[in-house]
Design brief:
- Helices cover about 15% and strands about 35% of the residues.
- It is built from six helices and eleven strands.
- Strands 1, 2, 3, 4, 5, 6, 7, 8, 9, 10 and 11 form an eleven-stranded antiparallel sheet that branches.
- Helix 2 runs antiparallel to helix 4.
- The longest helix is centred in the last third of the chain and has 15 residues.
Length: about 290
């Protein structure tokens, strides 16, 4: 990694227009609609039922180009993994809007030569017409081959651990299809090729394309809407999670929820492989 080029990389604002069809496609990419009689999920996928976006759709808005693949960055980009994601909603997402997304590299935490580095990336999303803030996002990307290049910036506080001994207050299983990553990349505009191209997935160390971590985050959001916030997506304010292992299209994902004074804690498993895929999850909810 060329730390100086990464640190000074300028990102022009990105404008994106989305509508009710975009919101429905995102919900479908999370598996909503598998049960066509589910009255609670219908408003996320059908414009005839007071449609509203799934709150976690904010992570798909204003997606930047694959800048880590630019030669000047000197990043071994096929080996980069999404490590963490955090978002805060400043208001409920409108069903349709033109948004303005501003991006910046926030920090790099160098773990040392041979141990990789973590790159933190901030995004601010606002309504382009009014300037109203909609969401703030922070992503952490693990650059597995780029340690030893130095540190800079303000590293966010670590996500707190979640005891593996506590039984969940709620749990739900969601099956995913073999096409899940191909559908999600169209809904999200995240075209990282390890989610579609078997050759590049093998180059990255996987025997087949992996699911997007943000897709699994969206599945956790789906579980929270179902089990904690039925008919009240406007109350979801923040989510944060660590991606500990990749999920694969076709996995059955079990989301476990824990009610705590500070909010909802969560984690998720790929059931058939007995593999933890999400950990240290945290979600805050407003009163009304």
């Amino acid at each position: 990694m060329n730390l100086e080029n990464v640190r000074t990389r300028h990102f022009p604002p990105i404008f994106q227009t989305y509508d009710w069809r975009s919101a429905a496609l995102y919900a479908l990419s999370l598996g909503m609609g598998m049960d066509s009689t589910d009255e609670e999920e219908l408003p996320y996928i059908y414009e005839g039922r007071d449609q509203r976006p799934v709150p976690s759709m904010c992570v798909t808005l204003g997606w930047p180009p694959l800048w880590i693949a630019e030669p000047a960055m000197e990043i071994n980009w096929p080996r980069v993994l999404h490590g963490e994601q955090r978002f805060e909603l400043h208001r409920s997402l409108p069903l349709g809007a033109t948004i303005r997304a501003s991006h910046r590299v926030r920090a790099v935490a160098d773990k040392g030569a041979g141990r990789g580095a973590v790159l933190y990336f901030d995004t601010e999303i606002e309504d382009a017409a009014t300037g109203t803030p909609l969401a703030s996002l922070t992503a952490a990307n693990f650059l597995r081959d780029d340690g030893g290049c130095g540190n800079f910036g303000d590293v966010p506080a670590a996500l707190s651990t979640l005891s593996s001994r506590d039984p969940p207050d709620h749990a739900i299983d969601y099956s995913t299809s073999g096409q899940a990553a191909l559908l999600y990349r169209l809904a999200s505009h995240d075209y990282m090729p390890i989610h579609a191209d078997p050759k590049l997935a093998r180059r990255a160390g996987f025997d087949r394309p992996i699911a997007h971590g943000l897709n699994t985050l969206g599945i956790a959001c789906r579980a929270i809407l179902k089990l904690v916030l039925p008919h009240a997506p406007h109350r979801l304010r923040t989510m944060a999670v660590r991606f500990v292992s990749p999920a694969f299209p076709g996995d059955t994902i079990r989301v476990e929820l824990f009610r705590r004074p500070e909010g909802i804690r969560f984690r998720a498993w790929a059931v058939g492989r007995q593999t933890l895929v999400l950990d240290r999850g945290h979600c805050t909810i407003s009163d009304g």
